[in-house]
Design goal:
Chain lengths: ~210, ~270, ~550, ~90
């Protein structure tokens, strides 16, 4: 038993992942990690519900775009996609720093990750603004409505992620996750990567799949 | 429109005598009745075995009975359980599945063969809160023309002839349900659904309820029509009379009355 | 293995009233909160059921007592619009706000940690949040009754376009859709907890195949909840947008000025959730009854592994049969037929379950306690419920039976009888552990016989008129000529229903009397071998176990002769 | 011990970047036909998602059971999508 485990008797929150007992099925995955994964599965199915609705509506429609409705701008959102990928990288780098007990570096990368999320949201706001000026209005067609619902549901996840990461960043800066107690950073990372992962799918299904001419 | 409404409805349906399934007026309905009743036989046997077993155990294997320590996981026990389950499955469910597949492809869902039966009657039914509009093609055999016969809550059909119905709805979902013919099909807004049936020749002169089976709002319970079975001659005559009336009453500007669609081929 | 101890430290019991009884993170307190909420709403749902039955016995006549209380505006008479709200809210309340909290919320919270040897749930704070989110949904439901035009009226299945502003204008339906969304969120939080707790907090030696069947049932239910409630959430969200923001996801036909909506889409999303939901409501019941039967037959559960396997198989199959609710919507016939086959396959694991239960009581030494009676009663009524499902799973017979009272009879036998009786069995069984006092066996048996006899008669009456073709959700069935002669059987059924209602009074008396004046319960009054009875006093201390136990054998080995 | 491999993280980043470029390239090639394009896009998206899941979310280093716990439920919606979109198209055409 390591010294951290001894500390665990004194304070429950200080069980580091390294001290977590081995489970025959789930190895050293911590409670928090398992819980987050289960939540992500659940969340994935809520996205699946919306994407399914999108797919069925689109598959069953005779024409998808109403006359006058713009195409979605692929180059700009490709940029957003790239931005999210970058923020995923900063996330893992922040995690790596936390594992190696480099508090300053971890804080920096986590902060950058949150910043990436903020920029993404700004980009999305910009995109919405542009599209609505071009005549894509929520409620005007299944095309417009599904687009706004799915992307804003994802945007809501980004927003949640930014909030979550901000809290984690502050706690990191305050030294809460020093000395191998990086589990909560990893768990937050799971959520953030999930948001990225979902965007990859949304980008493909909603933006890239070409419309039938 | 008023001219059509003013037409007298057929004779009112007769009340059912006795409990159980309503009087079967269709040529194919007995297939369903047979399957239901045979299954009931199986189900009752299973259920009685189960009850007797439970009752016997509860009464005889009570507090005074020495419990027999048995995990039931020996190869023998497991095999017995699996074999019994398999037998029940293949007999009861197998019977249901096979007969249903046969009946569906022989009758209820075989729209293609029904269409091909030559002398058929085609009716378009448009549901709305809370009534059934029916449309017959008239002499020209085309829907959506001036000689279409349009009725409200009143469908008349010749006996024996396959009656092909295409269903749609204006507002919410309804379900076209003919209890005496054992058929039912949802009327969906934005979609055209199919169903078909045949009336027995003995039923000539009788009329039956058309019911709505899908909750469609406050007056769902009143969404009722009448289906009357006529002889082929009477039917032809009725249709001719109606076509004349309809042609006279046709108003090209009454957009709402023009709900007919081009008959959807298979 | 010693390490399990470290990740579940003993927290001191909170001392303030609020932290102890209201915003508590203790799974046992949260369980009681869910139980109270569920029972109160069971009463609400039951009252609504009595009003349905009244209307069918005496259509359009003034409802005694209830009419003066709740229907003053219409002079005590149920009108057609009110009637739609009554059955809609009866269905929704019973499923989401009565049986779900009383069975899954209460016994999931209470039993899972105790039975697997954990000190609490994996995430106690999330657990608390789950309950209070649930309370928010209850408030939304209550609010829906108070707004103009009344509560939701589109049926518990809320099929659009009827459930959009086209069919049910007003805030009532909107609030209810919101309530479904919120209660979904609460369910997901609870279920994440259940799943994770079982995955990670089992005591040393508590392998999966040593878990009590109750835990298996609750765990599989939680898995289904985690995966399928979000789909309902998506459907409810889209419906909410259709109602409030004028989108047209589900609207087609003349009302869809902009085209593109699809009412069947909602049915797909709803039943992708909805069919797993019905097993969500039965799996814990199967588990509880499997345990009860073994405990009181003084025998280990017969072919335990087979039971576990069957329950798991049903869980998996439940995801791929939902189309049997949509046979007559005009779905692709090939798809319909595939759903028929898959549906019928579910009866194989169901038969295995029955055989195992029957073998368990065979050659036992049966103690007919109230809890055992409820267990046996559940097997009896579920037999009826399951077998009547076969007719519905077959397309050609469903052409006739779909949306008739046969369906209603089927699902009352499965849910309102089987899950209902199992919930009561669980209450009688775990009451001593929960509250530290014994319930009266005498009153319990009166309650049992009233319940099982009249449940069979009421729901049998529903099947009877369903067989005769009566559609469901009819304000006044006798408007139809082919149903006019069914007034008498319906009236009789209604009276059985009122008797069923009266039969619940002994329970209410028993519950309150035992709560305040019951005799003190011993640690293991039933003489069974699961952890909560063998190791915890009644009621258990805040931290459940002084020392996390090491488990050496299966759940049903109390009477092991070795 | 925790799995920290900075070099691998950067390699994955590069892979994701390249795959995104590929996606954009595929969309610009209508000549390959709608269905192949669709399949290519799905394949690219799924492999991107898999890279994120396996390396950034460390699924690669988890136990096999955990991997299956995640993967199996995620197949369900894919099956639904395949069948239901086809069915919706069938309803449109029939
Ligand atoms: C707890 C809830 C529950 C359970 C467990 C079930 C179980 C089953 N249900 Fe049910 N069902 C509902 C709740 C439930 N249902 C609800 C709420 C609805 C209606 C929703 C609505 O429209 O409002 C519904 C509707 C419904 C329909 C749609 C009907 C329609 O709308 O037209 C169908 C169709 O297939 C169906 C089928 C089945 C089947 C095949 C099972 C099977 O799982 C049953 C398996 C069991 C058996 C087959 C019994 C085996 C027992 C024996 C064989 C006896 C043993 C004896 C010996 C061994 C000797 N159900
Ligand atoms: C689990 C779910 C459940 C339960 C338990 C019940 C219970 C009952 N149901 Fe319900 N029912 C549904 C689910 C349920 N139902 C659903 C989903 C529908 C479909 C709705 C729709 O069409 O949209 C429906 C519809 C429905 C109809 C058809 C309406 C129609 O189609 O128009 C009828 C008619 O007979 C009916 C009757 C009854 C009766 C008599 C009971 C009786 O069993 C009730 C007896 C219970 C009580 C009288 C309460 C007793 C209270 C306590 C024990 C609490 C004690 C309290 C404290 C200690 C504080 N129900
Ligand atoms: Cu139309 Cu019910
Ligand atoms: Cu079902």
């Amino acid at each position: 038993m390591s010294e951290h485990a001894a500390a665990a008797h004194a304070h429950p929150d200080f069980v580091t992942p390294a001290d977590w007992p081995e489970d025959p099925q789930y190895g050293k995955a911590t409670l928090g990690k398992l819980g987050m994964w289960i939540f992500l599965l659940s969340d994935a199915l809520s996205f699946a519900g919306l994407l399914l609705a999108y797919g069925i509506l689109r598959g069953g429609s005779t024409h998808w775009h109403n006359p006058g409705e713009p195409e979605l701008g692929i180059p700009f959102t490709a940029g957003l996609t790239f931005l999210l990928i970058c923020s995923s990288v900063t996330m893992v780098l922040g995690y790596a720093a936390a594992v190696e007990n480099k508090r300053k570096q971890a804080t920096l990368f986590l902060g950058l990750t949150a910043l990436g999320g903020v920029l993404f949201l700004c980009g999305q706001a910009h995109e919405y603004h542009g599209l609505s000026q071009e005549g894509l209005h929520f409620g005007a067609s299944a095309y417009a409505s599904t687009f706004y619902v799915i992307t804003s549901f994802h945007g809501f996840h980004v927003f949640t992620g930014v909030t979550y990461l901000t809290i984690i960043t502050i706690a990191t800066a305050l030294g809460k996750f020093d000395n191998g107690n990086y589990n909560r950073i990893e768990v937050a990372g799971l959520f953030w990567h999930f948001v990225d992962l979902i965007w990859i799918l949304v980008f493909t299904f909603v933006y890239l799949v070409p419309t039938q001419k | 429109m008023t001219a059509i409404l003013a037409l007298a409805l057929g004779a009112p349906p007769k009340p059912e005598t006795g409990f159980g399934m309503p009087h079967d007026a269709s040529i194919d309905g007995h297939l369903i009745d047979w399957l239901i009743n045979v299954t009931s036989g199986f189900v009752i046997i299973l259920f009685v075995i189960m009850c007797v077993w439970m009752l016997y155990a509860a009464l005889k294997h009570g507090r005074d009975h020495q419990a027999e320590y048995d995990h039931g996981s020996s190869k023998h026990s497991v095999t017995v359980a699996l074999v019994i389950s398999a037998i029940i499955f293949f007999v009861v469910d197998g019977n249901l599945f096979v007969n249903s597949m046969v009946d569906l492809s022989k009758a209820f869902w075989n729209h293609a063969d029904a269409e091909a039966m030559g002398s058929v009657v085609r009716i378009e039914v448009n549901a709305h809160q809370w009534a059934w509009d029916a449309r017959y093609a008239g002499a020209d055999g085309q829907f959506g023309t001036a000689d279409d016969v349009v009725t409200l809550n009143d469908i008349r059909v010749p006996a024996e002839t396959p009656i092909l119905i295409q269903l749609a709805s204006v507002d919410v979902i309804h379900s076209f349900y003919l209890p005496n013919f054992r058929v039912k099909q949802d009327a969906m807004p934005g979609m055209v659904n199919r169903m078909w049936f045949r009336a027995k020749p003995e039923e000539i002169g009788n009329s039956f309820d058309i019911a709505c089976a899908q909750h469609c709002g406050t007056n769902h319970y009143k969404m009722k029509g009448t289906l009357t079975v006529l002889s082929k001659e009477d039917y032809a005559k009725w249709l001719q009379d109606q076509a004349a009336v309809s042609t006279r009453a046709y108003d090209p500007n009454d957009q709402e009355a023009h709900w007919g669609w081009k008959w959807k081929e298979i | 293995m010693e390490q399990h101890f470290e990740i579940q430290p003993i927290h001191p019991e909170p001392t303030s009233f609020v932290r102890r009884y209201i915003f508590s993170t203790d799974h046992k307190v949260i369980a009681k909160q869910f139980l109270w909420a569920g029972l109160i709403f069971l009463l609400v749902g039951g009252t609504l059921a009595m009003m349905i039955r009244w209307q069918w016995a005496y259509p359009g006549e003034k409802v005694p007592v209830l009419g003066d209380l709740f229907l003053r505006r219409s002079g005590g008479v149920i009108g057609p619009a009110t009637y739609t709200s009554i059955f809609t809210m009866h269905g929704l309340i019973m499923i989401f706000f009565a049986i779900t909290p009383a069975m899954i919320g209460a016994f999931g919270n209470f039993c899972i940690p105790l039975m697997i040897g954990a000190r609490d749930m994996a995430f106690p704070k999330l657990n608390m949040l789950s309950f209070w989110t649930f309370v928010v949904s209850l408030l939304l439901i209550i609010a829906s009754f108070l707004v103009r035009l009344g509560s939701a009226g589109a049926g518990w299945t809320t099929y659009p376009p009827l459930s959009t502003q086209i069919g049910t204008p007003g805030w009532g339906q909107t609030l209810v859709v919101a309530a479904i969304f919120v209660t979904g969120a609460a369910t997901i939080m609870g279920s994440i907890n259940y799943v994770t707790t079982v995955l990670r907090l089992r005591a040393p030696g508590m392998t999966y195949l040593r878990m009590p069947l109750t835990v298996w049932g609750l765990w599989l239910t939680a898995i289904l909840n985690v995966l399928f409630v979000p789909v309902l959430g998506a459907a409810a969200l889209l419906l909410f947008l259709d109602r409030v923001f004028g989108t047209q996801f589900f609207i087609a036909g003349a009302a869809s000025v902009r085209g593109g909506g699809d009412p069947i889409l909602f049915q797909h999303l709803f039943w992708i959730f909805g069919h797993p939901e019905v097993y969500i409501l039965i799996l814990p019941a199967w588990g509880i009854v499997g345990d009860l039967i073994s405990f009181f037959a003084r025998k280990p559960a017969y072919w335990y592994k087979g039971t576990v396997f069957a329950m798991t198989a049903v869980t998996i199959l439940s995801a791929v049969v939902y189309g049997h609710h949509m046979f007559v919507t005009g779905m692709n016939p090939l798809l319909g037929k595939s759903f028929m086959l898959l549906t019928l396959i579910i009866s194989v694991p169901a038969e295995m379950l029955f055989l195992n239960w029957l073998h368990t009581i065979w050659k036992g030494s049966i103690r007919l306690t109230t809890a055992m009676l409820f267990g046996l009663g559940m097997v009896f009524v579920f037999g009826l419920g399951g077998l009547t499902g076969l007719y519905l799973g077959t397309i050609s017979t469903d052409l006739y039976l779909h949306d008739t009272m046969w369906v209603v009879g089927h699902f009352h036998f499965t849910m309102a009888a089987a899950s209902f009786l199992a919930t009561f069995g669980a209450i009688y069984f775990w009451f001593p552990k929960m509250f530290g006092r014994n319930m009266s066996e005498g009153l319990g048996k009166i309650h049992f016989w009233f319940s099982v006899v009249f449940i069979t008669l009421v729901f049998g009456g529903q099947l009877f008129v369903g067989y005769a073709g009566q559609q469901r959700r009819l304000y006044d069935p006798y408007q139809y000529t082919f149903l006019a002669h069914l007034h008498f059987p319906n009236k009789l059924t209604s009276w059985f229903g009122f008797m069923l209602g009266i039969g619940q009074v002994p329970f209410i008396i028993n519950f309150f009397k035992s709560l305040f004046a019951g005799s003190k319960a011993e640690q293991n009054p039933w003489q069974v071998g699961t952890l909560e009875w063998t190791l915890c006093p009644s009621p258990p201390p805040h931290h459940n176990f002084d020392k996390i136990p090491t488990v050496l054998r299966g759940p049903h080995e109390y009477a092991n002769p070795e | 011990m925790a799995h920290v491999n900075r070099k691998q993280y950067m390699v994955i980043f590069l892979v994701l970047f390249v795959l995104t470029i590929l996606e954009l390239a595929v969309v610009k090639m209508p000549a390959i036909g709608r269905t192949p394009m669709f399949i290519a896009l799905i394949a690219l998206a799924v492999s991107k998602a898999a890279f994120v899941g396996l390396y950034y979310m460390h699924l690669k280093h988890e136990t096999r059971i955990l991997k299956l716990t995640i993967a199996i439920p995620l197949c369900t919606p894919a099956v639904y999508a395949l069948i239901l979109i086809a069915e919706a198209a069938w309803r449109r055409l029939s």
